[in-house]
Amino acid sequence: MLSISKKELNRRKEALIKMMNQKRIDALYIVSPASINYLTGFEVISTERPMALIIKSDGETIMFSPLLEVDHVKKYAYVDRVIHYPEYPDEKHPMKWLAEYMKKLGLKDKVIGYDTDGYGHIMGYRGPKLSEVFKDAKYIYARDLIEELRMIKSSEEINILRESARWTILAHRLLQEYTEPGKYEDEISFRASFEATLTMIRALPGLRNLRVIARFRGQIGKHSYYPHSLPIHAKIKRGDILVTGAGAKICGYSVELERTLIVGKPTNEQLKFFKLMLRAQEIALEVIKPGVKCSDVDRAVRKFFNENGIMQYWRHHTGHGLGLEPHEAPFLDIGDNRVLKPGMVISVEPGIYVENLGGFRHSDTIIITEDGYEILTTYPREIEELIIEK
Questions:
Q1: What CATH number is attached to the domain comprising 63?
Q2: CA 363 from chain center: how many Å?
């Protein structure tokens, strides 16, 4: 069965505690839903009610939860105990409850690392910082400790991402198959996503929160010029450039697959920019291997843009890490000098965006291996296989 085992969760915790001891941190206070999932296996539903994970340097793990989530946490979170408060905002603010618990946990005069000092402004939440309500401690920013661990995927994580890729490819195949002139982007996306999700649910019984999405997100025709669009509920028509996106969520993890489709025979201008986009992605892949800086991958792609006189069509970096979040560290960007290491999972997606014509972007998810990389999203990339001929 696909899952993150308790053995793997223990490995993560032990690695984190080792880092905490090296930094002389007595406890970590973690609010990030992805990081809580990473360390406990619990998929947090973020609301205005604060939830946090506390990890002590002696290995004890405690979830701080609102009352309405306590039973949910006890059933699914791999923690030693759960502490809770009644409600938010209530007569006594949750952060004041937390300050009292921190004292009971023996954290007075200790060093507490945090990813967020308090809780984010989510769904109307307002409240003080943790450091303001529990002043008898020293605080340091420590998000990087967990980020460093999350960047290198374990064998269990990679197995889940491989499975995600299988269903992502199916969903994208259905999206392409169901695309035809006269149909709304929504009906094509809903049909492909529903069919792929239902098939996955039947194939993977016992897993929670499975979901497959294949869509256009409004990147249709000239509107594909906008890299991060919202659905515009367009009807597909001949001559349209379509930029797609697909992913399959399993145990909180998902890969990313994007392609540029063209409805009908491509024009010479469409072919020109499609080929340039494809070559930009190939250049990135030619540079990628362990030991290479993330910045050098992006630098090679930007050099290609400059040499071909298309820098005015550049809008974003070459790629990003992914896993529990759709965008994670590291980033294939000239501002990120981290070195690529085996086990990193990243997207490779340089794009070209031409106003009054459209956008051109393929995105593939790859794993950095000992001697190079492995593509998880093995979907056709050449124009001949990405034309909608209906």
A1: 3.40.350.10
A2: 14
Residues 6+ positions from 390 with CB-CB distance below 8 Å: 179, 180, 181
HSE-up of residue 218 (Cα within 13 Å, Cβ side)? 9
- Is residue 260 within 8 A of residue 386, CB to CB? The reply is yes
Residue 264: exposure state from Cβ atoms within 10 A (0-12, 13-18, ≥19): middle
Domain boundary residue, one of 122, 150, 178: 150
Nearest in space to 328 (alpha carbons), one of 98, 228, 338, 66: 338
Query: Per the structure, how many domains does the chain have?
Result: 2
The DSSP output letter for 220 is: B
- Tens digit of each residue's pLDDT (9 = 90 or more) over 285-298: 999 999 999 999 99
Whichever domain contains 284, its CATH number is 3.90.230.10
Hey, which bits of the chain come out as E strands? Answer: 27-30, 52-56, 61-66, 81-85, 111-114, 138-141, 211-215, 241-243, 245-249, 260-263, 319-321, 328-332, 345-348, 351-354, 358-361, 364-368, 373-375, 387-388
pLDDT in tens, 129-175: 999 999 999 999 999 999 999 999 999 999 999 999 999 999 999 99
